[in-house]
Amino acid sequence: MNAIIYTRYSPRPAKDGDAERIAANEDAESIRLQVVVCHRYAVMKELIVTETIKDPETSARQTPLFEREGGSRLQCLPSGTHVICSKLDRVFRSTADGLMTMNHFKKHGIAMHFADQSGCTLDLSTGEGEFMFTVLLAAASLEPRRTADRTSKAMKHRQSNGQRMTSAKTLPFGQMADPDNDAMTIPCPDELAAINEAKQLSATGVSLREIAKRIGPIRGKILSAQSVKCLLTKWSVG
Prior knowledge:
Number of strands: 7
CATH class of the largest domain: Alpha Beta
Number of helices: 6
Largest sheet: 5 strands, mixed
Distance between the termini: 72 Å
Low-confidence stretches: none
CATH topology of the largest domain: Rossmann fold
Shape: elongated
CATH architecture of the largest domain: 3-Layer(aba) Sandwich
Structural class: alpha/beta
Strand order of the largest sheet: 2-1-3-4-5
Strand content: 15-25%
């Protein structure tokens, strides 16, 4: 029986120098280990591996399996083919994508296997394997959302304490990088003055377009009427 190995790893932030080289080595090792684990499983199940598909730098949460460059090749497999993956989260981070894929494979006679799911194997061609897949899929879908929530809360907490979380060019209007501590932010006098001027002009009936002209360039450019409107809405209190 023929089998195809599928591997994937997540995108990494851009890095330079030695950090970039180390990251590349780690990515190569991730793929290598996935392939080794899947080959061992194939031998145990007496399956013949005919192809290894790789989806590097690919988000399982953002891109469904059949929409990935490598994963799309799994959509039209002949009946009787086996698909082997190292772990469930190497393939799915979305409950909907996992269930849709499982149903598609069942309909077309494709068997899916996970070679090392927390130290155990998982064969979706069995009732028990299908049940465990559904349970574990929900957990795999939850984890990135929990991580995103924790990251968002941490960033908001740091911002509330004046810590800079973005580049100086993308700081919220009215803030600037602290000249004495680049990791912190402080109020920007020029931008706060522009906001106050815009509020006073608006109160006297001056148009948004005219307000933009009068307060002059902000961060090197004249604001649009819509940008002025957004600023007035945000800073309407106080």
